[in-house]
Design brief:
The protein has 2 domains: about 35-65 and about 75-80 and about 155-250, 3-Layer(aba) Sandwich (Rossmann fold); about 90-155, no CATH class. About 35% of the residues lie in helices and about 25% in strands. It has helices at about 50-55, 95-100, 110-125, 140-150, 170-185, 195-205, 235-250; strands spanning about 5-15, 20-30, 35-40, 65-70, 70, 80-85, 155-160, 190-195, 205-210, 215-220. Strand 4 and strand 5 form a beta hairpin. Helix 6 crosses helix 7 (about 235-250). The model has no long low-confidence stretch (mean pLDDT about 90). Bound molecules: adenosine-5'-diphosphate.
Length: about 250
């Protein structure tokens, strides 16, 4: 069974002083199988973030259906963890507090919650920073804490909205390799929005290209590189060829 499916989904926003309606996205439909990593690319403003927010249950659909593990979604759930471009950590909580917050809906005893928090902090490489507050962390460290917080909810699906967009090139590459490991090890299904084609090819099993607003699905590319993403070599001819075909589709 598909982990996530979107069918004929449409969304419009109304806003501005004249309450103009902006048809942001759709109709659009696609499916994510369990354990699949799918990236969405497309021109700025084409509705990529809107698709993620709809899948997170943060926005209501105008039309269509979104199913998660076979059931219609009707609001946010920790089973669908979301990570934004800005880490959005609580500034009044330290790293351990932020990560522990992510597991608040799980029925865990105090000891189990503490163990899970410690395990995730170690998994994201923040051991020793448990009592640091967000403003004392670098951007990459904040983003890792935000990911640990999302993972603490025990998500089956991670929705990633340009999570490394605010980081410098070198940190971004490190974070991509690190994310590849974490997601692969845990068998999590992931949907990533990015404007970085290289990031999409490095991380995804499939890359979806959206058209300009209202965003619709324009093309889908299967990335047939190593399934252990940490082994993907950005300079290999196959990698470069995937980047080129996706870029050509975007530029059409
Ligand atoms: P992308 O992620 O592809 O850059 P978005 O999903 O953020 O695009 O936005 C798609 C369109 O919807 C844009 O034209 C944007 O201005 C509009 N939009 C997004 N969020 C809102 C909102 N909260 N209110 C009104 N319009 C919005």
């Amino acid at each position: 069974m598909a982990k996530l499916s979107l069918e004929n989904v449409r969304h419009s926003f109304s806003g501005g002083t004249a309450l103009k309606t902006v048809h942001a996205v759709g109709p659009i439909g696609f499916v994510l199988e369990k354990g699949e990593f799918v990236a969405i690319v497309g021109p700025s403003g084409c509705g990529k973030s809107t698709v993620l927010r709809l899948a997170a249950g943060l926005l209501d659909l105008d039309e269509g259906t979104i199913r998660f593990a076979g059931e219609r979604i009707d609001g946010p759930s920790p089973r669908r963890g979301m990570v934004f471009q800005q880490p959005a950590l609580f500034p009044w909580l330290d790293v351990a507090g932020n990560v522990a917050f992510g597991s608040r809906f799980r029925s865990l005893g105090v000891g189990a919650r503490r163990d899970l928090t410690a395990e995730l902090i170690a998994a994201v490489g923040l051991e020793g920073f448990e009592d640091f507050y967000p403003n004392a962390l670098s951007g990459g460290m904040q983003q890792r804490a935000a990911l640990a917080r999302a993972l603490a909810g025990g998500p089956e699906l991670l929705l990633l909205d340009e999570p490394f967009g605010a980081l410098d090139q070198q940190t971004r590459a490190q974070m991509q390799a690190w994310l590849a490991g974490i997601i692969g090890d845990r068998g999590i299904t992931a949907l990533l929005v990015t404007h970085d084609i290289e990031e999409a090819v490095f991380l995804a099993d499939r890359v979806l290209v959206m058209s300009g607003r209202p965003g619709r699905l324009r093309a889908s590319f299967r990335i047939d590189l190593s399934t252990d993403r940490r082994e993907r070599v950005r300079t290999s001819p196959e990698f470069v060829a995937h980047k080129a075909e996706i870029l050509a589709e975007l530029e059409q």
